[in-house]
Design goal:
275 residues
Length: 275
C-alpha cells in the first residue's frame, strides 16, 4: 500500500519496490545489450555545473538547492523556536553551492567533459534520484523525488539519431508485450535558451518524444544535438559530440503497470515473464 502526502513524498511498499527493481532490471538489460556500462554518480550536483547548461534560465520552476546550516545560528534558533521545526529559516542557511538534479543524464556529460571519444561514440547508463519543484504532486505519478533510469549516447550525429530510433522501437515493443496502450507525443524540453537559434530549430524539428499511457508520460527519447557536447567540450570523430538519451521514470512505470494489471503482484509476474 502506498503512503502519500500532499508534499510529493511517497513511500513504496515491498511489492511496489520489488516491481520497481524488476523494471529497472529490464531497462538495465537493454543497456547491457547496447554496450552501455553503468555509472553511479553523487546525489548532488554543483550549481556552477548546472549553470553551464543554462539550467536556472530554462528550468527556474524546478530548481531545488542543498545548503549547509550555520551551527551557531541553528543552536540559537533551537533554543527559541517552538518544536518540532516546521521549516528552517533562510537566515541560518549558508549560500548553496549544490543543487538536487532534475535529470540523471547531466552527470554523464559532466563526467566526460574535455574528452575525445572514439569515432563511433559511446553509450552509458545511470540511475538517479531526481528532484523537481512541481506546482502539485500526485502519488507515484508526480513526486518531489523520484527514480530515473537513463541510457545515453554521446558521439557523432548519426549515432545519436540511431540511438533514438532504436530506443523508440524498443520501448514500443516493450509496451506492446505488457499490453500498454501507449501514445507517442511530441514534447518540448528547453535545454537551450528559448530565444536562441537552436530553440527555434527545435520548434521546427521536435527533439523530444514522450511515451504516454492514460495521459501520463512514463518515459521519453531526447535528442540534444551538440548542446551538451559544446558546453562540456566533448569531441567525437573530429567534431563536437552530439547526445541523445532514453529516460524512464521508474515510479511512474510502477503506477502504470499496477493500473494495467490491477495489483502489483500480477504486474510483477508480467515483468518477470518478459522475453
Amino acid at each position: 500500500m502506498t503512503t502519500a502526502t500532499d508534499n510529493g513524498l511517497t513511500v513504496l511498499d515491498g511489492d511496489q519496490l520489488r516491481l520497481l527493481r524488476a523494471l529497472d532490471a529490464v531497462f538495465l538489460r537493454l543497456a547491457d545489450g547496447w554496450q552501455a556500462p553503468e555509472l553511479r554518480f553523487p546525489f548532488l550536483i554543483r550549481c556552477e555545473d548546472l549553470d553551464l547548461f543554462d539550467y536556472f534560465d530554462n528550468f527556474p520552476h524546478l530548481g531545488l538547492a542543498a545548503t549547509r546550516l550555520d551551527p551557531h545560528r541553528l543552536g540559537k534558533l533551537l533554543t527559541e523556536a517552538s518544536r518540532p521545526l516546521g521549516s528552517v529559516p533562510p537566515e541560518i542557511m549558508e549560500p548553496a553551492a549544490f543543487a538536487l538534479p532534475s535529470a540523471a543524464c547531466y552527470a554523464i556529460y559532466l563526467h566526460h567533459a574535455g574528452t575525445s571519444l572514439p569515432d563511433t561514440g559511446m553509450m552509458r547508463t545511470t540511475v538517479a534520484t531526481c528532484f523537481r519543484n512541481e506546482d502539485h504532486y500526485d502519488g507515484l505519478q508526480r513526486l518531489l523525488g523520484f527514480s530515473m533510469r537513463e541510457i545515453v549516447f554521446i558521439g557523432p550525429e548519426d549515432g545519436a539519431k540511431q540511438h533514438l530510433v532504436r530506443a523508440k522501437q524498443t520501448v514500443l515493443s516493450l509496451c506492446a508485450q505488457l499490453g500498454l496502450n501507449v501514445q507517442v507525443e511530441v514534447a518540448t524540453d528547453p535545454f537551450f535558451d528559448p530565444n536562441s537559434g537552436k530553440a527555434k530549430m527545435q520548434r521546427l524539428f521536435p527533439v523530444k518524444e514522450e511515451f504516454v499511457v492514460e495521459g501520463l508520460s512514463i518515459g521519453s527519447v531526447n535528442y540534444h544535438r551538440n548542446f551538451f557536447g559544446e558546453r562540456c567540450s566533448i569531441q567525437a570523430a573530429g567534431d563536437t559530440a552530439h547526445t541523445s538519451c532514453l529516460a524512464f521514470g521508474l515510479e511512474r512505470w510502477v503506477h502504470t503497470l499496477t493500473q494495467r494489471f490491477g495489483d502489483t503482484t500480477t504486474a510483477l509476474a508480467a515483468v518477470e515473464n518478459l522475453g
